[in-house]
């Protein structure tokens, strides 16, 4: 073999290796931006999934909590990150469905700035009341609420939250006149329902579940079309006559727009594996969550449907956060 033959063979091998190296993913630590404070339901889910994904991807995943402005701060940060898959974002009802209607300048575009990776979980919601409210089902609750001389107050984790929007949808569906009592987080809202300061709220299973199981909150109905595992004795609002009523808080993962399709596919494969892991299943069951893994295309379609649904509610109620 001549010198030139060997030289050309080496050059050819390098030419093949360079694209392979360029397409390698991941090449280092992945930053998972969670647009909420540490310790909340979204943060807990992200940490469980991140630990499992790291096993599949062979690289560590660190959680970067960037709370504030209804997820806008974290979302805007992730939208501007390098589109190579090493920065991903927990994207949820607020980020992808509500904020573009709630804020005049959220700092990012839900439709243009992100590449869907996949859905993770839905947080079922349950209409709960203080045990002193004389109602055990939807019929009795509606009769009690309509008999009150003033509008009945309801608590939420904050204006524009999925819980707030779900209750506004409930108000429209039932014709009830309600008074919104926004709090800074779900925990203080639940505490005031427990104390009787406000008579009811629609709460997700992650926050309200322990109080329901302990008998400290009375569950009227589940805001989904099927009963929720772990809360099987609670009938849905749909089966109690509020046909088609459905409201969830949910979360998934996105990457910055223009992230290579192959990288998104790698992330999605690891995400689906993580969501289906025994560790995630156990944690989700404890929180009353429903795993909803799927493809990037399925997440994109789901987010579009949620934008249409909640955009109508926000516009009809003229809800604005700035």
From TrEMBL:
Signal peptide: 1-22
Pfam families to which the protein is assigned, alphabetical: TctC
Superkingdom of the organism of origin: Bacteria
Classification via InterPro entries: BUG, Bug_dom1
UniProt keyword annotations, A-Z: Signal
SUPFAM superfamilies in UniProt: Periplasmic binding protein-like II
Protein family membership: Belongs to the UPF0065 (bug) family.
Protein's name according to its UniProt entry: Tripartite tricarboxylate transporter substrate binding protein
Species for this entry: Massilia soli
């Amino acid at each position: 073999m001549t010198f030139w033959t060997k030289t050309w063979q080496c050059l050819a091998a390098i030419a093949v290796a360079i694209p392979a190296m360029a397409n390698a993913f991941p090449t280092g630590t992945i930053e998972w931006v969670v647009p909420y404070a540490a310790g909340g339901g979204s943060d807990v889910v992200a940490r469980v999934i991140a630990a499992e994904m790291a096993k599949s991807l062979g690289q560590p995943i660190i959680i970067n909590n960037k709370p504030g402005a209804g997820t806008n701060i974290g979302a805007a940060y992730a939208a501007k990150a390098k589109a190579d898959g090493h920065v991903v974002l927990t994207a949820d009802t607020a980020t992808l469905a509500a904020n573009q209607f709630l804020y005049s300048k959220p700092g990012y575009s839900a439709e243009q700035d992100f590449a869907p990776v996949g859905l993770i979980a839905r947080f079922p919601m349950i209409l709960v009341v203080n045990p002193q409210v004389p109602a055990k089902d939807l019929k009795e609750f509606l009769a009690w609420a309509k008999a009150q001389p003033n509008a009945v107050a309801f608590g939420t984790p904050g204006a524009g939250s999925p819980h707030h929007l779900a209750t506004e949808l409930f108000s429209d569906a039932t014709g009830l006149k309600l008074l919104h009592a926004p709090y800074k987080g779900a925990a203080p809202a639940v505490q005031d329902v427990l104390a009787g300061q406000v008579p009811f709220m629609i709460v997700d299973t992650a926050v309200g579940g322990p109080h329901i199981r302990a008998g400290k909150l009375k569950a009227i109905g589940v805001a989904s079309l099927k009963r929720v595992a772990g809360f099987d004795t609670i009938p849905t609002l749909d089966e109690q006559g509020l046909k088609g009523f459905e409201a969830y808080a949910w979360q998934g993962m996105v990457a910055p727009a223009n992230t290579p399709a192959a990288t998104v596919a790698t992330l999605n494969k690891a995400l689906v594996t993580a969501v289906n892991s025994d560790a995630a299943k156990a944690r989700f069951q404890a929180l009353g969550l429903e795993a909803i893994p799927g493809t990037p295309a399925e997440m994109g379609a789901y987010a579009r449907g949620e934008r249409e649904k909640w955009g109508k509610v926000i516009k009809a109620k003229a809800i604005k956060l700035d």
